[in-house]
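Incident log, structure service

09:12 report received: a user says their structure output differs between two submissions of the same chain.
09:20 pulled the input from the user's history:
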Amino acid sequence: MMDSEQEKPTFGVKLKGRHYQYKQSVYGIAYDQRQQTFLTVETKWNNLLLPGGGIERGETAEQALHRELLEETGFTIQIDAPIGRAEQYVLTPDGKAILNDAFFFEIRLLKQIQVSRELDHRLVWQPLQSVNELFHTHQAWEVRVGL
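09:34 re-ran on a clean worker, output below:
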């Protein structure tokens, strides 16, 4: 994993005069065995995202990834390797300004032990050619880095 702030790429545009809330997140990148598709979550707004989410106080990135993947997919996972770290300036639909500092890991889905708690999320395997359809630029960048 990249530790140096200089090595952490930043995406998005920081708007002048806006205060950005700092938020750490973690995302899992699962490829099929032939590395031709990768796992995404499609939201009710038809946005494609990598599975994952915010790191809660007291959690490591790895603990948060296990929790988030179970919540979003119902699957237990194996974390194979760290891929990298990137950040993105984001404006939410309700107008909040966030600096998303994200950790990315290559993962494997193991066993589905429950149904997803996120009823508005649907798992979709995407061909690698559609990586630019991901809603967040830093996620698309990390999918390409992980290959």
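09:41 both user submissions now match this output. Likely a transient worker issue. Closing.
09:42 reviewer note: Residues 73 and 116 are 5 Å apart (CA to CA). The radius of gyration is 15 Å.
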